[in-house]
Amino acid sequence: TTAAAATEFGLGCRRRRHPHARPQHRAHGLACLLANPHLQVLDLTASQMTDATLTALLRASPNVRQVDLGNALGVSHASVSRVAEFCPLVERLCLRMVANLRDDTVLSLARGCRNLKAFSLAWATQLSAQAPMHIAAWCPNIEHLDLSGYREALTDQAVQAITDGCTKLVTLDLSDCYNLTDVTVLHLVEKCAGIEVISLSRCHNITVAAMRVLAQKPSLKAINLFGCYSIVYPHIREVCSHLTINEHILGENDGSDISI
To answer: Tens digits of per-residue pLDDT, 232-244?
Structure first.
């Protein structure tokens, strides 16, 4: 299912780690990879590499459909942008916790990867609200979007742009975006006709009244609200009793304790 696909994508970005390999084994693996232009999945999660290495890998993978660079070390925004140049068919792209990203990096990726269906920019804290605007403008086919960890940078206005431009959303993670308010919830209710899973963990400016409205959305199946104030959680449970709550749908990896 689409929600299951989001689970795999989220967990892949957040939790998979490559075992430590000897240098000769890494070199052999790279040589084999460069000889395989039919590669479909390029998983470099938590890898440490140079820009030259990443560029070589991307250039050798023109048919790749999934690229995971979550928590990759040593790469610059310029080399990450090469995904759009060398891997135009990519459908799933994870840049969770990738340092040195810039708003224009996201613009290049959004414009060049027109088949994107799943995109994670979680905890890319150096980005501004302009980055999601680029996604809204250039990625109409996005189904799974992870913008968790934007803290104060993400605004209700940026979410409005996303709901206007990304009308096929099935899962959306806005956890740890502290400035979002009930206005964001209204945008989600009005515009995202097919959304099934929403994560709003630790978005403390969103009220129970807004959650009551959101809970009535016919398409909605599950919601993640980790970190709710303990005094609020019983009310959330009441208004969302028919929904699955806190099931780690998008790879949430915080604890199950909902109190602060």
So the answer is: 667 777 777 788 8
